[in-house]
Design a protein that fits this description.
6 helices
Length: 87
Amino acid sequence: MRPAAKGGLAATAQVLVMERPRSNLKALFKSKGYTFLVIGLCLICLGVFAPSFYLQVFASEKGVDVGLTSYTVAIINAASIIGTFPT
């Protein structure tokens, strides 16, 4: 991309971008429903993603071959393709 075009795009972005109004985080967390939603979603993310970090260690503790434990995450990801097919 030419320098003149980059400068023109940068100038256009400066003109079009507006400043967002600042949000008050204390006001957001005063709502009990919103607070429980945020806490629940954090726990769900921990439950979904944390096991994949310890999968290799768990497999090696259970006696799975060391060469195969390096492929456990890839195997789980390949198996999850079935879940993406529409029913």
